[in-house]
Amino acid sequence: MPDVSQRVQTLVQLSDELLERLDRTASTRGVSRSQLIRALLDAALVDERDEIGRRLVDGYSRVPQSEGRDAWGDLEGWSEVVARRNLAALADEEEEGW
To answer: Do 25 and 36 contact (CB within 8 A), yes or no?
Structure first.
């Protein structure tokens, strides 16, 4: 948990019912309302990041990346062409005295 001096206060509007549930849960856990809110937000944001990772893994499991060619063409071949073009441009610059 970051140092208190590094925290920023924010205003959040809650319904009476949600506030009551929040206070009951905080009391049951023996923490302050603020501590509970921070913990719940942290858990939700971690879950969201984990869900994105799971979806990426699932997508690559269902449709694995092919070697070289894909929907846009031959990536390896394109990379080689670009590399040769860049090396030739550098050689031309050296000849011109750059």
So the answer is: yes
Indicate the pLDDT class of residue 72, thresholds 50, 70 and 90: low
DSSP 21-53: HHHHHHHHHT--HHHHHHHHHHHHHHHHHHHHH
**Type and span of the H or E element at 69:** strand 69-70
Q: How far apart are CA 24 and CA 89, in angstroms?
A: 69
Tokens at 10, concatenated = 């924010």
Q: Tens of pLDDT along 4-49?
A: 668 889 999 999 999 999 999 999 999 999 999 999 998 888 877 7
Q: Nearest to residue 38, comparing CAs of 17, 22, 16?
A: 22
